[in-house]
Design goal:
Structural class of chain B: mainly alpha
Number of strands of chain B: 4
Strand order of the largest sheet of chain B: 1-2
Oligomer: heterodimer
Strand content of chain A: 5-15%
CATH architecture of chain A: 3-Layer(aba) Sandwich
Distance between the termini of chain B: 17 Å
Number of domains of chain A: 1
Number of helices of chain B: 22
CATH topology of chain A: Alkaline Phosphatase, subunit A
Largest sheet of chain B: 2 strands, antiparallel
Distance between the termini of chain A: 39 Å
Order of helices and strands of chain B: HHHHHHHHHHHHEEEEHHHHHHHHHH
């Protein structure tokens, strides 16, 4: 077997020296961790978001879309000398400097085909196969984590529940509405109508509980939210609604401690662009949204970890229409005041033809479940036993990546 | 099974929700009411102002060209393009979208062949395009009218070919730009030392995964790549440069962009016949057992249960295979499926189902105005915006979120407030729900505090949330 080039940046996989159990209890009573999961649906191009500028094969594969080195005009933002950050991601770069961002690369879920929909299913169900489980890893983790009461678990910012949040733990969904609330009397009768219907009764109760938080003091911002954009609307305001809502739920100590939201538009098959263009625009919107999230979270940012994940990556080489097709490994970001950041964590497989997965994609060297196990165990204090048995069944080979967050 | 349950299932499960008088019309033979809807040819959707996709697209391409030229001229002088130039294309496309959505909605609310219309919506969602791409805003309606409706009572293979050669699908899944790496056009660029051009595999993959075989249907990455080469040169007319020529706004096969040579895909050899090579592959895909199974599974999930009973799937797949993809034969097997008539309320309504069935039940007139779009946007299912080529999902868990439910109830409350004094909920309840109406709902509606509240409670009832 060819000896791969190992670039050790920061702590590496299992066995990393950052593992520390002695400090795990230091703030157990006062610290209230918050966790935000952002799912980037459509397969984010990891090689465009976090270009490996130092890899000798990068520029040839990316041709006219290759980003210039840091320091050059429209160049990538510098990370560690080998990797750069897409120039649209200036807030993330700023947080990298503040040691609040871990960049993960060459990472993939256990899924090895190239269907978005099955890929997202695996990313969310937490098993190694599509449709193997009907619940999501984050919900199962919440069910296993110590909780203080109903609804303290989590909220999905959106009308419906993504798979990752479905399951036994009590979670709810919330989205801004310009529809008027019902009067108490009508609401009581609707509740009565649902008395014999377990599904509708529990959904309605969850919705009203979430609404109570949203209409409280913290929720005032939610009520002032701009309404949904018109079809075809574009612009940096894309994340305003969801980010404000997520922050309003997470800020109070009594509310949900986990928030999830979705983003789409990452499926860049044609005219993807380089330092400018389609993907650059999307990344700039995302970056602005994350900056707003930090602002809105205010004092609880220091207790927050935000994880950005996508279902898989894109081809190493650009295709014939200046875009990229479905690939395998990609990049991910862990961001927040609670993150032990300022590092790129990667076991870089290289981009030579022999190193590519099936001769076309960045090869995976890090299982996303290793990252998830580490964050869930250390940040949300989910017991390891539950992580192995219920949250990520049959994942023993993916050992927890420790030390990603500050305990 | 009592006839009253069968009629309620026919109108609400197979149809789009009962209109007043519909259950009585169905009477004792629900099966026959459904079969009769499949006999006459499918009608075209007619409304003043609807235009062909070729006309719409030709004008859109022209507008884009003008805007670009203007922008280039202006940016030579000053920085940035003026807002009116950027906005001109959306301003042209959005009214077309409104017109198409309202025409479709008017038809859905008033049609006396609601089973046929549900099937039309099913197929439009199977071959989903999404208005996330600006041009699709203007083309989604004409795509459905031109590629879906004419074939709903025809053969699957004809619908497949109409869909994949439609400019909207070519645009949506990027194939119109795809170029064979050994095509004359690509080779010319190599000789002139220009940046290489080549294939884009988006459409090829989604045809295999979402339109025909399904994700476990036995194809490999190699098949995807070869299929993309087969489809290279399938394009649209009206773009400039190497995509020039042809009749603007229409599908165009461009031999100079097509990857030459015979291709071996899914174990079969396809000789070098240009456009006909792709047609042959599509015909073969339509005839594969995996395609029959995939289509049967989706139909069964849509009409019977979230977890499709395997026996019913097998019977539909067999009807598909035995009749060469003749769709009315498949629908006949669906009507005959015992499982479809067992559980009266097995499916949770999508927001579209919910709004359309409310409008049908309350005989709400639809204006051809942007306001008619609002309920779908408020309740989370903007028409023709599933956001991905997989289309809208079709399981309860995808739609029964807490926030989604509360919005439905609030919307029902607004409808009650608007129409309460002009509709009699107590008299409508049995007409809309028939044998599905529970005694508890009847009681609650009867004892409502006002006519408006009675209507709200009827629409918010558990049996009206499902079909």
């Amino acid at each position: 077997m060819e000896r791969r080039e190992f670039l050790r940046r920061g702590a590496l996989l299992a066995g990393g020296t950052l593992l520390s159990t002695s400090v795990a209890f230091a703030h157990a009573d006062t610290r209230r961790p918050r966790f935000v999961l952002v799912i980037l649906r459509g397969a984010l191009d990891g090689l465009a978001s976090v270009p490996p500028l130092g890899d000798p094969d990068y520029a040839g594969l990316r041709r006219e879309l290759a980003l210039h080195a840091a320091g050059e005009a429209a160049g990538a933002l510098p990370l560690d000398g080998f990797f750069g950050l897409h120039p649209s991601l200036s807030f993330l770069h700023d947080r990298y400097g503040a040691r609040e961002l871990v960049v993960l690369h060459a990472l993939a879920s256990p899924y090895r085909e190239r269907s978005h929909f099955d890929g997202q299913d695996v990313l969310e169900n937490g098993s190694a196969r599509p449709h193997a489980l009907q619940t999501g890893w984050l919900n199962r983790a919440l069910a296993a984590a110590p909780a203080r009461g109903a609804l303290e678990a989590g909220v999905s910012v959106g009308q419906n529940m993504p798979l990752v949040m479905r399951g036994p733990a009590s979670v709810t969904s919330w989205s801004p509405s310009k529809l008027v609330a019902l009067d108490e009397e009508t609401l009581a009768r609707v509740t009565e109508l649902y008395a014999g219907d377990a599904l509708l009764a529990s959904r309605l109760a969850d919705a009203l509980a979430a609404d109570a938080i949203a209409s409280g003091e913290e929720g005032e911002a939610l009520m002032r939210m701009p309404q949904e954009a018109a079809p075809g609307a574009r612009g940096k305001a894309r994340y305003t609604d969801v980010v404000r809502a997520a922050a309003a739920f997470l800020r109070p100590d009594e509310g949900p401690k986990v928030a999830v939201f979705d983003t789409s538009g990452w499926d860049t098959h044609a005219n993807e662009g380089g330092a400018q263009g389609q993907l650059a625009g999307r990344l700039a919107e995302l970056d602005a949204g994350l900056s707003m999230l930090r602002q809105e979270l205010g004092p609880v940012w220091k207790d927050t970890a935000v994880l950005l994940l996508t279902e898989f990556g894109r081809t190493a080489a650009i295709n014939g229409t200046r875009g990229t097709d479905h690939g395998t490994a990609t990049a991910a970001f862990l961001l927040g005041g609670a993150v032990a950041g300022g590092r790129v964590m990667v076991d870089w497989p290289g981009l030579s033809r022999r190193a590519l997965y099936q001769g076309r994609d960045l090869a995976p060297t890090l299982d996303v479940r290793s990252v998830l196990k580490g964050v869930l165990a250390e940040h949300l204090t989910v017991p390891s036993r539950a992580l192995e048995l219920e949250v990520f069944p049959d994942s023993a080979a993916a050992r927890a990546l420790r030390g990603l967050t500050r305990i | 099974m009592p006839a009253s349950i069968a009629s309620a299932i026919a109108a609400n499960r197979f149809g789009l929700g009962a209109r007043p008088g519909e259950l009585a019309l169905i009477g004792g033979d629900a099966h026959e009411w459904l079969r009769a809807q499949l006999r006459a040819p499918a009608p075209a959707l007619a409304a003043p102002g609807l235009r062909s996709s070729a006309q719409i697209l030709a004008q859109a391409l022209e507008l884009r060209r003008e805007s670009r030229a203007q922008r280039e001229a202006q940016s030579a002088g000053s920085a940035g393009a003026p807002e009116d130039t950027v906005q001109r294309l959306p301003q042209y496309l959005r009214p077309i979208y409104t017109l198409e959505v309202t025409a479709r909605l008017q038809h859905a609310v008033s049609t006396e062949r609601p089973f046929l219309e549900r099937l039309t919506q099913f197929w439009a969602n199977h071959f989903a395009i999404s208005i996330d791409k600006l041009f699709i805003t203007g083309l989604a309606g004409s795509f459905e009218r031109e590629a879906i409706r004419p074939h709903v009572l025809g053969h699957f293979s004809d619908m497949l070919l109409a869909v994949e050669t439609h400019p909207a699908m070519q645009l949506y899944l990027d194939n119109y730009l795809s170029v064979g790496p050994h095509s004359p056009a690509a080779q010319r660029r190599v000789r002139r030392d220009k940046p290489r051009i080549g294939i884009n595999e988006n459409l090829a993959r989604e045809i295999l995964e979402l339109h025909t075989l399904g994700v476990g249907g036995g194809y490999t990455q190699q098949d995807v790549t070869i299929f993309a080469e087969v489809l290279s040169g399938w394009s649209i007319a009206g773009e400039g440069g190497r995509f020039g020529g042809g009749d603007p706004g229409r599908f165009l096969f461009r031999p100079e962009l097509h990857e030459p040579g015979h291709k071996v895909m899914l174990g079969r050899r396809y000789p070098d016949e240009g456009f006909a090579q792709g047609v042959a592959v599509l015909r073969d895909l339509a005839a594969q057992p995996a395609t029959a199974h995939f289509v049967a599974t989706k139909l069964t999930r849509h009409f019977i249960a979230d977890e499709p009973p395997p026996q019913a799937v097998a019977r539909l797949a067999e009807a598909f295979a035995r009749n060469g993809g003749h769709l009315p034969s498949v629908y006949a097997a669906l009507i005959d499926a015992r499982e479809a008539w067992l559980e009266p309320l097995a499916k949770y309504k999508t927001p579209t189902d919910y709004v359309v069935s409310s409008f049908r039940g309350l005989s709400v007139p639809i204006e051809a105005d942007r306001a008619a779009l609002a309920p779908f946007e408020l309740l989370g299912q903007r028409t023709w915006q599933p956001g991905s080529p997989a289309g809208w999902p079709d399981r309860s868990a995808d739609w029964d979120g807490a926030s989604a439910l509360l919005k439905r109830i609030r919307w029902a409350d607004a409808v009650g407030a608007r129409l309460g004094n002009r509709r009699d909920a107590l008299q409508l309840a049995p007409q809309l729900l028939g044998a599905n109406l529970r005694a508890a709902t009847g009681e609650t509606v009867m004892h409502a505090a006002s006519a408006a509240q009675a209507l709200t409670l009827l629409l918010a009832s558990p049996e009206f949330m499902r079909r």
